[in-house]
Every structure is written in structure tokens, then in C-alpha cells.
Design a protein that fits this description.
The protein has 206 residues and is α/β, with parallel strands linked by helices. The protein is 25% helix and 22% strand. It contains six helices and eleven strands. It has a seven-stranded mixed β-sheet, with helices on both faces. The model has no long low-confidence stretch (mean pLDDT 91).
């Protein structure tokens, strides 16, 4: 049985990191919790902790928009949580994300990865980590399994010096066989982001 990161948020170590803290949460409709009745991460977190800001990636918070479509939200009120909602991708290349993270205590990331380099959500993850580093805020990644494979790397390695972009940022294979938490640890160390990173790992995932 696999226990994913969101299902472990009430364990003592992580509860201490989140309790009484203003949370900036990056997630979408893929953030679901088996333990909490398949509720979304937004609801699960908001019922237990203080979600102060929400950040939506490509396709929007509900994952209902077309490829390449973004919410274009800039601080609108999210009705269920009372948090402000932002389009994280629209903040790329600006200081705005760093400014917004300076108003929270911890950044939390929970999006299901697909294990492919060109998936834009992992670029949002490194974007979040860089901004948190500058803002001096910790990052908590709620880990989820790699649905393709945890052992088999395949495909060409990106020429990072020439072709780094929003659909492929780092020199990793097309299929990199890492969970999103493992990917976060890798780029944090090997790509010199060096933010204050905690990964709430999956249990039972080998």
C-alpha cells in the first residue's frame, strides 16, 4: 500500500512545520487525498491549516482549461478558503512571486507529476523553489508516485545550455524515473537552487 504525501500531513514532524503558519499552496485538481475521502488538497489543507495564498499552474486550479491556458488570476478571492488566488506561471520572470511568498510562512507544493521532462508543472516547482530561496521561506513538497516508472530512464537528455525553457528546463532524460519529491531534491542540490526544502515522501513506494 502506498501512502502519498498529502495523507501524512498530520504526522507530528510535518504538523509542526504547518501549524499556525500562513501557507502558500501550489496545487490543482490532481491533488487528491485517498486518506481524506478523495478530497482535494485545497480542502484538506484549509480544514486543518491556514491557507493564505493559492497558486494555480497551467490549466488552472480546477485543471479545466485548455493546453497552454492559464487562469490570469491576480489576487482574486478564492471563495472556499478566503485565500488569494494567483496564476503562478504569469509570475515567471518577475519578482512578484518572491514578494507574495514574503507574505506567507511556508510554501507547499502538491501536484501529480507524470515523469516526463516537458511537463510544465515541474518548471513551476523549480520556479517556486527559487522564489522561496530569495524570500527566505521553506518549501514543503508533498510527494506522489511517478506513474510511468521509478526505475527506467529513457529518451534524450536536454541540452540545457541551448534549449532550457518552460517545457524542459534541466538536463534530464525525457523520462527521468523520479517522483516529484525526488526531482525537487535533485534540482535543489545539483542545479544550485539550495532552498530550505522538505519532502514529505511517499511510504510504500519502491
Amino acid at each position: 500500500m502506498i501512502t502519498i504525501g498529502i495523507d501524512r500531513i498530520e504526522e507530528a514532524l510535518y504538523k509542526a512545520l504547518l501549524r499556525s503558519k500562513r501557507i502558500g499552496l501550489v496545487t490543482n485538481a490532481s491533488g487528491l487525498s485517498p486518506r481524506y475521502g478523495w478530497r482535494g488538497t485545497v480542502e484538506v489543507m484549509a480544514l486543518r491549516y491556514r491557507v493564505a495564498a493559492l497558486f494555480a499552474p497551467e490549466h488552472g486550479l480546477a485543471s479545466a482549461m485548455q493546453d497552454g491556458a492559464f487562469t490570469k488570476e491576480d489576487g482574486v478571492l478564492h471563495p472556499e478558503t478566503g485565500a488569494r488566488l494567483y496564476d503562478i506561471t504569469a509570475l515567471r520572470g518577475t519578482d512578484r512571486l518572491t514578494e507574495l511568498l514574503s507574505e506567507v510562512d511556508v510554501a507547499v507544493y502538491d501536484i501529480q507529476d507524470v515523469g516526463a521532462r516537458f511537463y510544465t508543472y515541474v518548471c513551476n516547482l523549480s520556479q517556486l523553489m527559487r522564489a522561496a530561496k530569495i524570500a527566505g521561506k521553506p518549501v514543503l513538497v508533498l510527494d506522489r508516485p511517478n506513474p510511468i516508472s521509478n526505475t527506467l530512464c529513457e529518451g534524450l537528455i536536454l541540452d540545457e545550455s541551448r534549449f532550457s525553457s518552460f517545457v524542459g528546463e534541466f538536463a534530464v532524460p525525457t523520462r527521468y524515473a523520479l517522483t516529484v519529491g525526488e526531482y525537487a531534491r535533485y534540482v535543489n542540490t545539483e542545479k544550485g537552487i539550495n532552498c530550505n526544502l522538505t519532502v514529505l515522501s511517499c511510504q510504500g513506494w519502491e
